[in-house]
Amino acid sequence: MHHLVALLSFSVLTVVCGQQVGTQMAETHPNLSIQKCATGSGCQIQSTSVALDANWRWLHTTSGTTNCYTGNTWDASLCPDPVTCAENCALDGVDYTGTYGITSTGSALTLKLVTHGPYSTNIGSRVYLMANDTTYQMFNLKNQEFTFDVDMSNLPCGLNGALYFVEMDADGGLSKYPNNKAGAKYGTGYCDSQCPNDIKFINGEANVLDWVPSSNDANSGTGMYGTCCSEMDIWEANNNAAAYTAHVCTVHSQTRCSGSDCGDGDDRYNGVCDKDGCDFSSYRMGDTSFLGMGKTVDTSSKFTVVTQFITADNTTTGTLTEIRRIYVQNGKVIQNSKVNIPKMTTYDSVTDVFCNDQKTTFGDPNSFEARGGLATMGQALSKGMVLVLSLWDDYADNMLWLDSDYPLNKSISTPGVARGTCATTSGVPSDVESQNPDSSVTFSNIKFGDIGSTYTL
């Protein structure tokens, strides 16, 4: 996810994660159909499903129901060290709708912000698309396009309805790490370009070393390790702003990091991943009338988002050179907005030239170019990436990096600072959760395939 801090913070009450498999509740993945398309032969439906990330699941002893983690603190007797904790603790199946507010019907998936379950109150969620009951669906998208519909009319300031790809292992690390007995079926193996260190189990071991409970999130904390991999943010948005962002890393699979490699704090630009990424946000790039409530792309109703991954020779083996964006709404194809920033060319897609120009104009370090730029992103796309769908609020920066003016210590007139219409006082998680608990996002009609095959001109 694209923001200017290392910590990705997700909130959930009394619901946590682990690596063994519990027996308190059977795990039944909600079905979600997608379509694979080809030029000349149309689209074929594929039966897939989604699995909830392990970080949200109840973590308890393998022999009973005692919590291994409560609030934002580990049980020291059950989790004295990473391996013992993984051996002592199990994660269970979940009630997707009743506990987590996750519902699916046909090709549509809805994620709700606040869900009051029978034993806990849940905030947000993160799910992965499954090829089968034990394996994540892998997408190889070079010289391909990826399309979906989104309804975020019920998604106000401070929230992020995100759809993105990360370079996770197809089995969630099950085969690599002996202490991981749960695997993809139970949502293990997460990584992204922020190298998040709030993930409770990494590489099959509990992240208990140097664990520090969060000062402003009663359910989260950070440990010694982070988990890193390249990330392609297809969609990070609420009904006020949206961005798509490529993040690349010098590592080429899910990798546990520590120290400066994680890029935390002052080491932000010394880590293995490009945390800033190269982003295209219409509002940030100077077209403030393009996307939003009542604008050209009207976020008050559903629309289609098309993302095309163009290679130098128009083959699936060529070098990635461009990421294009197209919208479709009310039967009308809407080409992406153009850059309207003084001294910048009127770009309308992500290329290495655009990224370099943006970084120079905004005065930002070019960590994207330093880690290989689009060519590196193409390597991840060739290898295969996992689709992630999530809804979250931001305990670190109140989502201002997405939908407001950010950073706060710079003038709004500085190029790149204005990112959306939301007030700089908006997005405080406690306010968002109490004032807009029924907020939700619906993703539907996911399609992928040949360029030009997934939508109608």
Automatic annotation (TrEMBL):
Its EC number is 3.2.1.-. It catalyses: Endohydrolysis of (1->4)-beta-D-glucosidic linkages in cellulose, lichenin and cereal beta-D-glucans. The keyword Transcription does not apply. The keyword NADP does not apply. Residues 1-18 form the signal peptide. InterPro entries: ConA-like_dom_sf, Glyco_hydro_7, Glyco_hydro_7_sf. Gene3D superfamilies: Glycoside hydrolase, family 7, domain. GO terms for biological process: cellulose catabolic process. Keywords: Carbohydrate metabolism, Cellulose degradation, Glycoprotein, Glycosidase, Hydrolase, Polysaccharide degradation, Signal. Pfam families: Glyco_hydro_7. GO terms for molecular function: cellulase activity. CDD domains: GH7_CBH_EG. Belongs to the glycosyl hydrolase 7 (cellulase C) family. This is Glucanase. It comes from Piloderma croceum (strain F 1598).
